[in-house]
Amino acid sequence: MQVRLGENTEKKHAPLARLAATALGSGPGTATVHLCDHAEEPLARRRDDLVITLCRGEIPSIVPAGARGFAITYADPTDRAVIAAIAACSQSSGPICADPGSLALMALAERVAQSDIPLLIDGPTGTGKEVLSRFVHASSARRDGRFVAVNCAAMPEAMLEALLFGHRKGAFTGASEAAEGFFRAADGGTLLLDEIAEMPLGLQAKLLRALQEGEVVPLGATMPVKVDVRVIACANRDLPTEVAEGRFRADLYYRLNVFPLSLAALRDRPEDIAPIVFAMILRHTPAGVPVAWPSRAALAKLEYHPWPGNIRELENVVRRALVLAGNGASIEASHIIFDSAARCVSTETPVFSTPAMPAIARGGTASRLSSIVRDTEAQAIIDTLDACDGHRGETARVLGISERTLRYRLASLRDAGLAPARIAR
Fold it and tell me: Which end of the chain is less enclosed by CB atoms within 10 A, N or C?
């Protein structure tokens, strides 16, 4: 991403302008972003360039300014939330990321996009595998071709072959018309096969041939049809384990695994959370309604949560917070209510279902439980840090987390007022 600063921007908005330019310069994509003071005109720009104007004020805010612009007011130029807001505005059409690990992954994905080799993306459900796939497609020479996404788990097994490879008229009962199938629909573009581990073994052999030969044989046909398709496969299961247990063909795995990319769980990339939150707020705020700004305490609460549901869960929480905030100018920590965890229950015990939100209204049980979990984890971090004589590298090793994640946990503790004075900095 290219960043251009207005003539007076760096002088009037130091150090924010330099920090933002550095952060955006390492972000994904080839867009050009103009950062300028609210009182000056941006430098000569193209129609697709993005313009972000900056203004100092007591109350932070984001105001959309046309189709390709935003006006950001901020109070503290060193506030991480301001950088996150700028990142969210500038990356609104692609992956939103700020964590060093995520930025490295996006840089690698941009390089891989320049080739036509198959790509295998793995990671827990809800981490953004399809978003990454679309980014690879948009960064490739096939960007003008179609991007066709197929969820293998959502297709009826009996119909999956016809849906993928197409069929001729009369090939089976009910085939009153011929169909080209997803492979031919994606000719010249990219085909995403999501949840590839759910594909039946018999169909895996036919997929392998399509990948090796670059051709498909529609149902009811005798001659193959050439296709020019870049295949991206996604899996939320461990495919080597699936191969070892006989549920996935080894030859297909090695054909797909030319260049694997792995998306980490959201809890392992905490620096991505704030920009994603701002992007979701912008996405779900109706036109004409003021864009709410999350407070430091609200962001700290979000960054401290373990996110078992990853980005899908985060989106639920953000949309819920927007409803609770109403048309207010800010989202406070009290507006952040996490999803209740799914539980396995015994069929031998009577179960009385209680909706999550009413339970909170009746007495705050979920909020108290969240506080207990947060306080317990905070105490574990503080006790381990004391046991390691304040050595953060050793503390991170004992806790089984990265040192970067530990730094973020400590920062969240400080913002939430849970860190004792001896480790406040």
Answer: C
How far apart CA 281 and CA 292 sit, in angstroms, is 7
Contact status, residue 332 vs residue 325, Cβ threshold 8 Å? yes
Q: Confirm if 35 and 21 have CB atoms less than 8 A apart.
A: yes
DSSP H helical segments within 286-388, as ranges? Answer: 296-304, 310-325, 356-363, 365-387
**pTM for the complete prediction?**
0.76
Instruction: Name the β-bridge partners of 226.
Output: 215
Q: What is the mean pLDDT of residues 177-197?
A: 91
Crossing angle of helices 80-90 and 296-304, rounded to 10°: 80
Quick: pLDDT tens for 369-421: 555 556 677 777 887 888 787 888 888 877 777 777 787 778 777 766 666 65
**Polymer length in residues for the chain:** 425
Q: What is the DSSP string of 260-286?
A: EEEPPPGGG-GGGHHHHHHHHHHHHSP
Q: Residue 224 CB: number of other CB atoms within 10 A?
A: 15
Residue 212 has pLDDT above 80, yes or no: yes
Q: What is the pLDDT of residues 14-51, one digit of tens each?
A: 788 888 888 777 777 667 888 888 888 766 667 778 88
The single-letter code of the amino acid at 7 is E
Strands 230-235, 69-74: pairing is unpaired
pLDDT given at position 368: 52
Q: Which of 61, 24, 46, 91 is nearest to 294 (CA)?
A: 61
Buried b (16+ CB within 10 A) or exposed e, 163-177: bbbbbbeebeeeeee
Answer for the pair 271, 99: CB distance below 8 angstroms, yes or no: yes
Distance from C-alpha of 338 to C-alpha of 369, rounded to nearest angstrom: 10
- Phi, then psi, of 16 in degrees rounded to 5: -60, -45
Contacts of 260 (CB under 8 A, 6+ apart): 119, 120, 121, 122
Cα angle 271-86-416, degrees, rounded to a multiple of 5: 45
